[in-house]
Amino acid sequence: MCKPIFTPIAHRKILCKEDGANKIRKNNFRGIVGSSIFLTNIRPGIEYVISLMVIFMSHPSIVHLKVVKRMLRYVRVAITFGMDYSY
Questions:
Q1: Residues 50, 36: contact at Cβ < 8 Å?
Q2: What is the pTM assigned to this prediction?
Q3: Are 50 and 37 in contact (CB under 8 A)?
Q4: Domain map of the chain by residue range?
Q5: pLDDT digits (tens, 9 = 90+) for 63-83
Q6: What is the rounded distance in angstroms from the CA atom of residue 17 to the CA atom of residue 20?
Q7: Within a 10 A sphere around the Cβ of 18, how many other Cβ atoms?
Q8: Are 4 and 73 in contact (CB under 8 A)?
């Protein structure tokens, strides 16, 4: 069970490639982001987050992983919303 989140990304979240955070394994990050791309067809509200994470696929860090996890928690809650017309 996860804590419900009602927005896919934190307000005014600033991300950069060299943020000083510990780097994570590229394969795991790419797998999560790649698997999430198909969700943009049914949840267009996460398209912005996915497009941001694709930029950081070459040098992912803990900060980027936290953003992806927040997006997944949003999707978990958004399933109960019905259709998403936030685009």
A1: yes
A2: 0.81
A3: yes
A4: 26-81
A5: 999 999 999 898 888 777 665
A6: 9
A7: 7
A8: yes
**CA 62, CA 49: separation in Å to the nearest integer?**
16
Contact by Cβ (8 Å): 48, 9: yes
- Tell me how long the chain is: 87
pLDDT digits 0-9 by tens, 17-56: 777 788 888 899 999 998 888 888 878 888 989 998 999 8
Angle between helices 62-78 and 47-55 (to 10 degrees): 160
Buried b (16+ CB within 10 A) or exposed e, 58-69: eebbebbbebbe
